[in-house]
Amino acid sequence: MLDLRSDTVTRPTPAMREAMARAEVGDDVYGEDPSVARLEERVATITGKPAALFVPSGTMGNQIALLCHCRAGDEVIIGEGAHCAFYESGAGAAWAGVQFEVAGRGGLFTADELSRAIKPPFYYHPRARLVALENTHNRAGGKVFPQSDVLAIAAVARARGLGMHLDGARIWNASVASGLPVAELCEPFDTVSVCFSKGLGAPVGSALCGDHETIVAARRFRKMLGGGMRQAGVLAAAALHALEHHRERMVDDHAAARTIADAIRKVERVSVWDVDTNIVNVDLPGVPAARLVERAREHGVLVSPSGPERVRIVTHLDLPSARVSEAAAVLAAAAKGAVEEARP
Protein backbone atom coordinates (compact mmCIF):
# COMPACT_ATOMS: atom_id res chain seq x y z
CA MET A 1 0.00 0.00 0.00
CA LEU A 2 1.39 3.39 -1.02
CA ASP A 3 0.39 5.95 1.61
CA LEU A 4 0.15 9.43 0.05
CA ARG A 5 -2.22 10.93 2.60
CA SER A 6 0.54 13.13 4.04
CA ASP A 7 4.30 13.49 4.36
CA THR A 8 3.82 12.80 8.08
CA VAL A 9 3.40 9.05 7.43
CA THR A 10 7.08 8.41 6.69
CA ARG A 11 9.01 5.90 8.78
CA PRO A 12 12.60 6.32 9.94
CA THR A 13 15.16 4.97 7.49
CA PRO A 14 17.63 2.33 8.69
CA ALA A 15 20.36 4.98 8.86
CA MET A 16 18.11 7.24 10.92
CA ARG A 17 17.29 4.39 13.30
CA GLU A 18 21.00 3.75 13.72
CA ALA A 19 21.58 7.43 14.53
CA MET A 20 18.79 7.29 17.11
CA ALA A 21 20.25 4.15 18.69
CA ARG A 22 23.67 5.81 19.04
CA ALA A 23 22.36 9.15 20.38
CA GLU A 24 23.88 10.69 23.48
CA VAL A 25 21.09 11.54 25.89
CA GLY A 26 20.47 13.41 29.13
CA ASP A 27 17.59 15.11 30.90
CA ASP A 28 16.57 17.96 28.63
CA VAL A 29 14.34 19.59 31.27
CA TYR A 30 17.59 20.12 33.17
CA GLY A 31 19.20 21.28 29.91
CA GLU A 32 21.49 18.25 29.94
CA ASP A 33 20.69 16.43 26.71
CA PRO A 34 23.67 16.94 24.37
CA SER A 35 21.83 15.74 21.26
CA VAL A 36 18.99 18.19 21.82
CA ALA A 37 21.53 20.98 22.36
CA ARG A 38 23.24 20.11 19.07
CA LEU A 39 19.93 20.07 17.23
CA GLU A 40 18.87 23.43 18.65
CA GLU A 41 22.21 24.97 17.69
CA ARG A 42 22.06 23.47 14.21
CA VAL A 43 18.52 24.54 13.40
CA ALA A 44 19.17 28.04 14.74
CA THR A 45 22.12 28.30 12.38
CA ILE A 46 20.12 27.02 9.40
CA THR A 47 17.25 29.44 10.00
CA GLY A 48 19.58 32.34 10.76
CA LYS A 49 18.15 32.93 14.23
CA PRO A 50 20.11 33.31 17.49
CA ALA A 51 18.40 30.44 19.31
CA ALA A 52 15.98 27.53 18.95
CA LEU A 53 13.84 25.29 21.13
CA PHE A 54 13.02 21.64 20.36
CA VAL A 55 9.29 20.96 20.77
CA PRO A 56 7.18 17.82 20.23
CA SER A 57 5.07 19.19 17.39
CA GLY A 58 4.54 22.03 14.95
CA THR A 59 1.25 22.83 16.64
CA MET A 60 3.07 23.40 19.92
CA GLY A 61 5.68 25.52 18.16
CA ASN A 62 3.01 27.74 16.61
CA GLN A 63 1.05 28.02 19.83
CA ILE A 64 4.13 28.95 21.87
CA ALA A 65 4.86 31.64 19.29
CA LEU A 66 1.36 33.06 19.78
CA LEU A 67 1.91 33.08 23.54
CA CYS A 68 5.25 34.85 23.13
CA HIS A 69 3.89 37.54 20.82
CA CYS A 70 0.34 38.15 22.01
CA ARG A 71 -1.93 38.89 24.93
CA ALA A 72 -5.50 37.70 25.34
CA GLY A 73 -7.80 39.72 23.10
CA ASP A 74 -5.14 40.41 20.45
CA GLU A 75 -5.68 39.69 16.78
CA VAL A 76 -3.41 37.61 14.54
CA ILE A 77 -3.57 38.22 10.80
CA ILE A 78 -3.21 35.06 8.73
CA GLY A 79 -3.80 33.70 5.25
CA GLU A 80 -6.97 31.76 4.51
CA GLY A 81 -6.79 28.18 5.78
CA ALA A 82 -3.68 28.79 7.88
CA HIS A 83 -2.64 25.77 9.95
CA CYS A 84 -2.59 27.71 13.24
CA ALA A 85 -6.30 28.49 12.83
CA PHE A 86 -7.55 25.53 10.78
CA TYR A 87 -5.74 22.48 12.16
CA GLU A 88 -4.82 23.25 15.77
CA SER A 89 -8.09 22.50 17.59
CA GLY A 90 -8.87 26.11 18.47
CA ALA A 91 -5.69 26.33 20.56
CA GLY A 92 -5.04 29.97 19.65
CA ALA A 93 -8.26 30.96 21.40
CA ALA A 94 -7.86 28.48 24.26
CA TRP A 95 -4.25 29.24 25.25
CA ALA A 96 -3.17 32.63 23.88
CA GLY A 97 -6.71 34.05 23.83
CA VAL A 98 -6.29 35.46 20.33
CA GLN A 99 -8.65 35.78 17.43
CA PHE A 100 -7.73 35.51 13.76
CA GLU A 101 -8.34 37.86 10.85
CA VAL A 102 -7.88 36.54 7.30
CA ALA A 103 -6.00 38.59 4.73
CA GLY A 104 -6.60 37.81 1.08
CA ARG A 105 -7.98 34.56 -0.24
CA GLY A 106 -6.43 31.23 -1.10
CA GLY A 107 -3.82 31.15 1.64
CA LEU A 108 -1.31 33.66 0.30
CA PHE A 109 -1.77 37.42 0.52
CA THR A 110 -0.09 40.70 -0.37
CA ALA A 111 1.07 43.74 1.56
CA ASP A 112 -2.00 45.67 0.35
CA GLU A 113 -4.29 42.89 1.56
CA LEU A 114 -2.52 42.93 4.92
CA SER A 115 -3.04 46.68 5.19
CA ARG A 116 -6.76 46.27 4.52
CA ALA A 117 -7.01 43.55 7.18
CA ILE A 118 -5.52 45.70 9.96
CA LYS A 119 -8.34 47.35 11.90
CA PRO A 120 -8.16 51.03 12.88
CA PRO A 121 -6.71 51.58 16.37
CA PHE A 122 -10.03 52.30 18.08
CA TYR A 123 -10.46 50.92 21.58
CA TYR A 124 -13.48 48.86 20.56
CA HIS A 125 -11.49 46.87 17.96
CA PRO A 126 -9.22 43.97 18.79
CA ARG A 127 -5.61 45.07 18.59
CA ALA A 128 -3.62 43.57 15.76
CA ARG A 129 -0.42 42.20 17.26
CA LEU A 130 1.02 39.60 14.87
CA VAL A 131 1.18 38.61 11.21
CA ALA A 132 1.57 34.84 10.70
CA LEU A 133 2.52 33.42 7.30
CA GLU A 134 2.70 29.77 6.26
CA ASN A 135 5.39 28.69 3.80
CA THR A 136 4.74 26.39 2.07
CA HIS A 137 1.00 26.76 2.54
CA ASN A 138 -0.65 23.40 3.14
CA ARG A 139 -4.25 24.06 2.13
CA ALA A 140 -3.12 26.18 -0.82
CA GLY A 141 -1.58 23.02 -2.25
CA GLY A 142 1.98 23.39 -1.02
CA LYS A 143 2.37 26.85 -2.53
CA VAL A 144 5.62 28.70 -1.98
CA PHE A 145 5.00 32.20 -0.59
CA PRO A 146 6.82 34.56 -3.00
CA GLN A 147 9.70 36.16 -1.12
CA SER A 148 9.03 39.55 -2.70
CA ASP A 149 5.55 39.48 -1.13
CA VAL A 150 7.01 38.35 2.21
CA LEU A 151 9.40 41.31 2.25
CA ALA A 152 6.62 43.76 1.37
CA ILE A 153 4.37 42.28 4.08
CA ALA A 154 7.19 42.55 6.61
CA ALA A 155 7.69 46.23 5.75
CA VAL A 156 4.00 46.95 6.42
CA ALA A 157 4.09 44.93 9.64
CA ARG A 158 7.14 46.80 10.93
CA ALA A 159 5.62 50.16 10.07
CA ARG A 160 2.47 49.21 12.00
CA GLY A 161 4.32 47.77 15.00
CA LEU A 162 3.29 44.15 14.33
CA GLY A 163 5.36 41.05 14.98
CA MET A 164 6.08 38.48 12.27
CA HIS A 165 5.79 34.71 12.72
CA LEU A 166 6.50 32.07 10.09
CA ASP A 167 4.84 28.69 10.21
CA GLY A 168 7.64 27.05 8.30
CA ALA A 169 6.63 23.44 8.82
CA ARG A 170 7.57 22.83 5.18
CA ILE A 171 10.13 25.62 4.80
CA TRP A 172 12.56 22.94 3.59
CA ASN A 173 10.31 22.34 0.58
CA ALA A 174 10.04 26.07 -0.04
CA SER A 175 13.82 26.40 -0.01
CA VAL A 176 14.33 23.53 -2.45
CA ALA A 177 11.61 24.80 -4.80
CA SER A 178 12.65 28.47 -4.74
CA GLY A 179 16.41 27.94 -4.65
CA LEU A 180 16.65 30.38 -1.73
CA PRO A 181 18.49 29.44 1.48
CA VAL A 182 16.31 28.70 4.49
CA ALA A 183 17.92 31.58 6.41
CA GLU A 184 16.96 34.04 3.67
CA LEU A 185 13.36 32.83 3.69
CA CYS A 186 13.26 33.17 7.50
CA GLU A 187 15.08 36.51 7.79
CA PRO A 188 11.98 38.81 7.80
CA PHE A 189 10.42 36.96 10.77
CA ASP A 190 10.80 37.37 14.53
CA THR A 191 9.93 33.73 15.16
CA VAL A 192 9.93 30.66 12.94
CA SER A 193 8.44 27.23 13.56
CA VAL A 194 9.99 24.39 11.53
CA CYS A 195 9.03 20.73 11.40
CA PHE A 196 11.23 17.64 11.21
CA SER A 197 8.47 15.02 10.85
CA LYS A 198 7.04 16.02 7.46
CA GLY A 199 9.23 16.16 4.37
CA LEU A 200 12.40 15.54 6.36
CA GLY A 201 11.07 12.17 7.49
CA ALA A 202 11.93 12.24 11.20
CA PRO A 203 9.41 10.47 13.45
CA VAL A 204 8.71 13.34 15.86
CA GLY A 205 9.53 16.96 16.48
CA SER A 206 9.64 20.60 15.50
CA ALA A 207 11.58 23.65 16.63
CA LEU A 208 10.72 27.25 17.41
CA CYS A 209 13.46 29.70 16.46
CA GLY A 210 13.93 33.33 17.47
CA ASP A 211 16.07 35.62 19.58
CA HIS A 212 17.45 34.52 22.94
CA GLU A 213 14.88 36.42 25.01
CA THR A 214 11.98 34.91 23.08
CA ILE A 215 13.34 31.38 23.38
CA VAL A 216 13.80 31.79 27.15
CA ALA A 217 10.11 32.70 27.36
CA ALA A 218 9.24 29.89 24.95
CA ARG A 219 10.95 27.32 27.17
CA ARG A 220 8.66 28.28 30.04
CA PHE A 221 5.57 28.09 27.82
CA ARG A 222 6.69 24.69 26.54
CA LYS A 223 6.75 23.44 30.12
CA MET A 224 3.30 24.93 30.79
CA LEU A 225 1.91 23.06 27.78
CA GLY A 226 3.43 19.76 28.86
CA GLY A 227 6.15 19.76 26.24
CA GLY A 228 9.16 19.39 28.51
CA MET A 229 10.93 16.18 27.46
CA ARG A 230 13.54 14.16 29.32
CA GLN A 231 15.93 11.92 27.33
CA ALA A 232 14.79 13.45 24.06
CA GLY A 233 18.15 12.97 22.37
CA VAL A 234 16.90 9.87 20.56
CA LEU A 235 14.38 12.12 18.80
CA ALA A 236 16.83 14.96 18.28
CA ALA A 237 19.26 12.52 16.65
CA ALA A 238 16.60 11.61 14.09
CA ALA A 239 16.02 15.28 13.30
CA LEU A 240 19.77 15.94 13.00
CA HIS A 241 20.12 13.02 10.60
CA ALA A 242 17.21 14.32 8.55
CA LEU A 243 18.67 17.83 8.33
CA GLU A 244 21.95 16.47 7.03
CA HIS A 245 20.66 13.74 4.68
CA HIS A 246 17.05 14.40 3.62
CA ARG A 247 16.87 18.04 2.52
CA GLU A 248 18.37 17.94 -0.96
CA ARG A 249 16.43 14.81 -1.93
CA MET A 250 13.12 16.73 -1.65
CA VAL A 251 13.54 17.63 -5.30
CA ASP A 252 12.51 14.03 -5.97
CA ASP A 253 9.27 14.51 -4.03
CA HIS A 254 8.48 17.61 -6.05
CA ALA A 255 9.13 15.81 -9.32
CA ALA A 256 6.92 12.91 -8.21
CA ALA A 257 4.10 15.31 -7.36
CA ARG A 258 4.31 16.86 -10.83
CA THR A 259 4.23 13.42 -12.46
CA ILE A 260 1.09 12.50 -10.54
CA ALA A 261 -0.53 15.86 -11.27
CA ASP A 262 0.18 15.56 -15.00
CA ALA A 263 -1.43 12.12 -15.12
CA ILE A 264 -4.61 13.18 -13.32
CA ARG A 265 -4.84 16.40 -15.32
CA LYS A 266 -5.67 14.35 -18.43
CA VAL A 267 -8.96 13.20 -16.88
CA GLU A 268 -12.03 15.13 -18.05
CA ARG A 269 -14.06 17.11 -15.50
CA VAL A 270 -11.14 17.11 -13.07
CA SER A 271 -9.16 20.20 -12.09
CA VAL A 272 -5.61 19.84 -10.79
CA TRP A 273 -3.91 22.76 -9.08
CA ASP A 274 -0.50 23.93 -10.21
CA VAL A 275 2.18 22.10 -8.25
CA ASP A 276 4.95 24.04 -6.51
CA THR A 277 6.26 21.39 -4.16
CA ASN A 278 5.07 17.99 -2.88
CA ILE A 279 1.30 18.55 -2.52
CA VAL A 280 -1.25 17.93 -5.26
CA ASN A 281 -4.79 19.28 -4.85
CA VAL A 282 -7.40 17.69 -7.10
CA ASP A 283 -10.87 19.21 -7.48
CA LEU A 284 -13.75 17.03 -8.70
CA PRO A 285 -16.68 19.39 -9.38
CA GLY A 286 -19.94 17.62 -8.59
CA VAL A 287 -18.13 14.41 -7.55
CA PRO A 288 -17.70 13.37 -3.90
CA ALA A 289 -14.02 13.19 -3.01
CA ALA A 290 -14.70 9.94 -1.15
CA ARG A 291 -15.28 8.16 -4.47
CA LEU A 292 -11.75 8.84 -5.69
CA VAL A 293 -10.32 8.00 -2.26
CA GLU A 294 -12.09 4.63 -2.15
CA ARG A 295 -11.16 3.67 -5.72
CA ALA A 296 -7.52 4.52 -5.08
CA ARG A 297 -7.53 2.48 -1.87
CA GLU A 298 -8.90 -0.54 -3.71
CA HIS A 299 -5.84 -0.40 -5.97
CA GLY A 300 -3.26 0.13 -3.25
CA VAL A 301 -2.90 3.90 -2.90
CA LEU A 302 -4.05 5.91 0.13
CA VAL A 303 -5.01 9.58 -0.33
CA SER A 304 -7.15 11.97 1.72
CA PRO A 305 -10.20 14.15 1.08
CA SER A 306 -9.47 17.78 1.98
CA GLY A 307 -12.95 19.01 1.14
CA PRO A 308 -16.27 17.59 -0.07
CA GLU A 309 -15.02 17.56 -3.67
CA ARG A 310 -11.26 17.90 -3.19
CA VAL A 311 -8.54 15.31 -2.71
CA ARG A 312 -5.02 15.98 -1.42
CA ILE A 313 -2.06 13.85 -2.50
CA VAL A 314 1.32 14.29 -0.78
CA THR A 315 4.60 12.79 -1.99
CA HIS A 316 7.49 11.98 0.36
CA LEU A 317 10.58 9.85 0.86
CA ASP A 318 8.58 6.65 1.45
CA LEU A 319 7.32 6.76 -2.14
CA PRO A 320 9.98 4.82 -4.09
CA SER A 321 10.93 6.46 -7.38
CA ALA A 322 10.24 3.16 -9.13
CA ARG A 323 6.59 3.33 -8.08
CA VAL A 324 5.80 6.96 -8.96
CA SER A 325 4.41 6.02 -12.38
CA GLU A 326 2.31 3.28 -10.79
CA ALA A 327 0.86 5.73 -8.26
CA ALA A 328 0.13 8.25 -11.00
CA ALA A 329 -1.68 5.63 -13.12
CA VAL A 330 -3.75 4.37 -10.18
CA LEU A 331 -4.80 7.88 -9.16
CA ALA A 332 -5.65 8.93 -12.72
CA ALA A 333 -7.78 5.80 -13.14
CA ALA A 334 -9.43 6.41 -9.77
CA ALA A 335 -10.28 9.98 -10.76
CA LYS A 336 -11.67 8.84 -14.10
CA GLY A 337 -13.76 6.12 -12.44
CA ALA A 338 -15.11 8.53 -9.81
CA VAL A 339 -16.16 11.00 -12.50
CA GLU A 340 -17.82 8.36 -14.66
CA GLU A 341 -19.67 6.91 -11.68
CA ALA A 342 -21.09 10.34 -10.89
CA ARG A 343 -22.46 10.94 -14.37
CA PRO A 344 -26.28 10.86 -14.56
Radius of gyration: 20 Å
Tally the beta strands.
13
| Dominant shape | globular
What is the helix content? 40-55%
Q: Compute the average pLDDT.
A: 97
Q: Main β-sheet, in a few words?
A: 7 strands, mixed
What is the CATH superfamily classification of the largest domain?
Answer: Type I PLP-dependent aspartate aminotransferase-like (Major domain)
Beta-strand portion reads: 15-25%
- Which architecture of the largest domain would the CATH scheme give at its second level? 3-Layer(aba) Sandwich
Walk across the major sheet and give the strand order. Answer: 2-8-7-6-5-3-4
N-to-C terminal Cα separation, in Å?
32 Å
Which ranges are low-confidence, i.e. pLDDT below 50, for 5 or more consecutive residues? none
In CATH, the topology of the largest domain is named Aspartate Aminotransferase, domain 2
Topology as a string of helices (H) and strands (E):
EHHEHEHHEHEHEHHEEHHHEEHEEEH
**Domain count:** 2
* CATH class bucket of the largest domain: Alpha Beta
